[in-house]
Automatic annotation (TrEMBL):
It holds the Pfam family NusB. It comes from the Bacteria. Keywords: Methyltransferase, RNA-binding, S-adenosyl-L-methionine, Transferase. One of its GO terms (biological process) is regulation of DNA-templated transcription. CDD domains: AdoMet_MTases (cd02440). This is MFS transporter. Belongs to the class I-like SAM-binding methyltransferase superfamily. RsmB/NOP family. Residues 140-435 form the SAM-dependent MTase RsmB/NOP-type domain. S-adenosyl-L-methionine binds at residues 248-254, 269, 310. Gene3D superfamilies: NusB-like (1.10.940.10), Vaccinia Virus protein VP39 (3.40.50.150). PROSITE patterns: NOL1_NOP2_SUN, SAM_MT_RSMB_NOP. PANTHER family: NOL1_NOP2_SUN FAMILY PROTEIN _ ANTITERMINATION NUSB DOMAIN-CONTAINING PROTEIN, NOP2 YEAST -RELATED NOL1/NOP2/FMU SUN DOMAIN-CONTAINING. It comes from Methylocystis bryophila. The keyword Methyltransferase applies. The lineage of its organism: Bacteria, Pseudomonadati, Pseudomonadota, Alphaproteobacteria, Hyphomicrobiales.
Length: 436
């Protein structure tokens, strides 16, 4: 039955992410365990990915709609039913699938498994009702009220206030644009690829074409990187021939920026697998960095002129691009990561030469990983001082800096009349100079 394998794969992936804690991107690599894509052709993989992505982006409201339709809740003996219902609901409410096809394929999918086969009638009824009451559920979806896990929304309200949190959540429900960092000539590439040049210099497209098919990819003229993610490496203001450490480097978006300045860059990461990706990316871009596989918290070397710490974090600023983050992270992750980040920060201080500098950044909206982390670092390391970011030099709007002069972006910033071209990832970055 055409379309069935893609729907089955999507339902499995949604379960692997929400129940198994897997990263969505990882589920779509050939090394995924379990591999849900075996035997699927490229079109089916793309369809499964788009269903799973939308389902995770709108999981809160989909679950809310299903709970309104399933008066008695999900049958306890068939919890796997939920994933098939979620995949089908994502298609009915948010994708251009014909209702009857989405319902029919979901019914066929649940009939394939002995544990769920007896509920085919229930699935049929629930999904038909969902399609009939589509407008009501779309109105519910518009509010954005259900699309962030309550614990995260509550934190953001405390940090950013009610109104901004609403805008953050609403932006996270949208499909993000594709941002490119070009080696040179952003205006030329924007024209060739049908995009725009942002004030910060990134090229922004709204295409859904596979990246590898876009002009300039194979020739290594640009790489994919959110506009906010492109700013921290620039804050380091690296000069040719300086010795620079990229402390958490893979897959190498920021290493590429640092290496393209002519600096001597060491790209360090704990993950040998991810460093293979970095090496392949640098190869395509015809750029060079020395690669080191090591745990940053125990790293030792001759002092560097400049260090970038793009620390591992909860990544709650990237939920637009990685909707799985909203459903796989938990409050204790913030505490665990904050401890690791502080250790890395102190190690970086130990290998910064007097007069040298550090840029510390995270793609997290949580102050414990950003603002608070820097304040604690400065208390522990009085030989460092903060240097406010120069927004004019970055071409960034004034709202990109916080009161301390650090970079702080939130997803609803960089608005655009064309909503397909609006928003940025949530990022935090601070510049710290070691006294000579
Ligand atoms: C936010 S990602 C880096 C993204 C990268 N800078 C870029 O722009 O493409 C964080 C990285 O930290 C690495 N990492 C996590 N713990 C580490 C540790 N203890 N030592 C070194 N690297 C670590 C992860 O493997 C991951 O690649």
């Amino acid at each position: 039955m055409p379309g069935l394998p893609a729907r089955l794969a999507a339902a499995h992936v949604i379960c692997d992410v929400v129940q198994g804690g897997h990263r969505l991107d990882e589920c779509f690599t050939p090394f995924a365990v379990p591999n849900r894509l075996a035997g699927l052709d490229a079109r089916d993989v793309a369809l499964a990915r788009s269903i799973a992505t939308v389902a995770l982006r709108r999981l809160g409201v989909i679950r809310r709609a299903l709970s309104l339709l399933l008066e008695k809740g999900l049958p306890r003996q068939a919890t796997r039913l939920e994933w098939a219902l979620i995949a089908a609901a994502a298609q009915i409410l948010f994708l251009d699938a014909a209702d009857h096809a989405a319902v029919d394929l979901a019914v066929r999918a649940v009939r394939l498994e002995p544990k769920t086969a007896g509920f085919a009638g229930l699935v049929n009824g629930v999904l038909r009702n969902l399609a009939r009451r589509r407008d009501e559920f779309l109105a519910l979806a518009e509010s954005g009220e259900f699309d962030a896990p309550p614990w995260l929304a509550q934190r953001w309200r405390r940090t950013y206030g009610e109104a901004e949190t609403k805008r953050i959540v609403q932006m996270q429900m949208r499909e993000p644009p594709l941002d490119l960092t070009t080696k040179s000539q952003p205006a030329f590439w924007a024209e060739r690829l049908g995009g725009v040049v942002l004030p910060t210099g990134s090229v922004r497209l709204s295409t859904r074409q596979p990246i590898v098919e876009l002009e300039g990819f194979a020739d290594g003229e640009w790489w994919v990187q959110d506009a906010a993610a492109a700013l921290p490496a620039r804050l380091l203001d690296v000069k040719p021939d300086e010795r620079v450490l990229d402390m958490c480097a893979a897959p190498g978006g920021k290493t590429a920026q640092l290496a393209s300045t002519g600096a001597r860059v060491t790209a360090l990461d704990r993950s040998a697998e991810r460093l293979k990706l970095l090496a392949a990316n640098l190869d395509r871009l015809k750029l060079h960095a020395d690669i080191a596989v090591a745990d940053a918290t125990g790293y030792s070397a001759q002092p560097f002129d400049a260090i970038l710490i793009d620390a591992p974090c909860t990544a709650t600023g990237t939920i637009r691009r990685h909707p799985d983050v909203a459903w796989t992270k938990k409050p204790s992750d913030i505490e665990t990561l904050a401890v690791l980040q502080a250790k890395m920060f102190d190690r970086a201080a130990a290998v910064t030469r007097p007069g040298g500098r550090i840029v510390y950044c995270v793609c997290s909206l949580e102050p414990e990983e950003g603002e608070t982390q820097v304040a604690a670092f400065l208390r522990r390391n009085p030989d460092f001082r903060r240097e406010p970011v120069d927004l004019a030099a970055l071409g960034a709007p004034s709202e990109f800096a916080n009161r301390d002069g650090d970079l702080r972006t939130t997803p609803q910033m960089l608005p655009n009349e064309d909503s397909r071209l609006a928003g940025v990832d949530g990022f935090f970055a601070a510049r710290l100079f070691r006294r000579p």
